[in-house]
Structures are given as C-alpha cells and as structure tokens.
Amino acid sequence: MHTISQPLYTSLSLLFQGFFTFNIAIYSYFGQAFMCLVPTMATAQILCSVFIGLNNFFSGLIVRPQYMTGVFAFTYWITPGHYVYEGLILSQYEGDERPVTASTGSQFYDWLGCERLDSGEECEGTVEKFVWVFFGEKFNQSHIYMDVLVLALYLLVARVVTFFALKKFQYTNT
Fold first, then answer.
1. Which of 9, 29, 141, 146 lies at a CB distance of 3.0 to 4.6 Å from 158, suitable for a disulfide?
2. pLDDT at 1 (0 to 100)
3. Statement: residue 84 has pLDDT above 60
4. CA 89 to CA 81: how far, in whole Å?
5. Residue 169 — φ and ψ, nearest 5°?
C-alpha cells in the first residue's frame, strides 16, 4: 500500500484548507463589494453570478488549461478560480505515489510511453504524474507561492473596492 508521510500529509492538508479558505473569502468579499457598488440587490446578484460563472469556467475546472488558447488563455490567467483550483489540486495530489493504470490511447498512456510495452502488459504511472499530464503540465508545484500571492492580491482588491464604494456611494430606498 502506498501512503504519504505524515509531515507531508499535514502540510498538504494545511495548504488545502488555506486554498479553500481563500476561495470562500474571495467569493464573500467580492459579493460584499458588488452589494456596495450597485444600488439594487438584483444587480449585485447578477454581478456575482457572472463572477462565479467566469471563475468556474475559466479556472481549469470545466475546460482544462491546455485547451484554453487565444482570448480564453487571458481569462484563465485573470480569474482567481484558476489559482484556487491549482492550489487545491496540487495540495491534494503532490507526492501521491498511488498507481494509476493508463488507458490505451489516452494522453497519460502516450506520455508514459506505454506503446513500447508488450500488448499484454499494464502500463502504470502515479497519481501525481496523472495530475501533471491531465492538466497539460500547467499545474506545477512551483506555482504555489505565486498562487497564494495572487489570491491575497484579489482579496486586497475586493476590500479596497468595498471601502471605496462605502465611502463614495450612498444608496437609499425611497
């Protein structure tokens, strides 16, 4: 049985919790900012829906990063969801040496070079390598510090926008 050492497991668990918290905070703070920026709740809800939709679609969750090219590559790099998702995935599967059997003809199969094996042999890699290939080699452990800094910047922007909106706008129902 393959396991992850306890110190590595603990640090990865803390990373996962940190990225999860960043995600919740970003959605909450941008929701507050939208509520302060526009006069009606309906408009704020629409802005939040657009923000959530862009985050989900362009984070690498629905469309993998290697398939986002042109204008879509730009949206991938500006959505905070990309940095959250990368952090969540890498914190879960970094150092995971459990075996994964590659399916014939898959990207993972080709990446492992399984075509060189006899047809009767199974071709295996690790979970960590599968994640590397699945996300087109775009999710990288060396990005973790950048992910944290970018997410902190998004939180700062949300708080500054909220502060500015509370200072400049005064909406009243009449």
1. 29
2. 47
3. yes
4. 12
5. -110, 140
Tell me, yes or no, whether 144 lies in a domain.
yes
* Opening angle at CA 45, ends 61 and 75, nearest 5: 35
Could you say which DSSP state residue 112 is in?
H
* 168 vs 153: which has the higher pLDDT: 153
Q: Residue range 133-149: average pLDDT?
A: 91
Note the maximum CA span of the chain: 78
In a domain, 85, yes or no: yes
Residue recorded with tokens 């960590």: 128
Q: Is residue 45, in this structure, part of any structural domain at all?
A: yes
Q: For residue 85, what are its two tokens?
A: 């998702």
Domains held by the chain: number:
1
Domain that holds residue 38: 6-96+139-168
Dihedral (Cα; 110, 112, 115, 121), 10-degree rounding? -130
pLDDT in tens, 38-62: 988 899 999 999 999 988 888 888 8
CB 28 within 8 A of CB 157: no
Q: How many CB atoms lie within 10 A of CB 134?
A: 21
Please tell me whether the overall predicted TM-score, pTM, comes out greater than 0.85 for this model: no
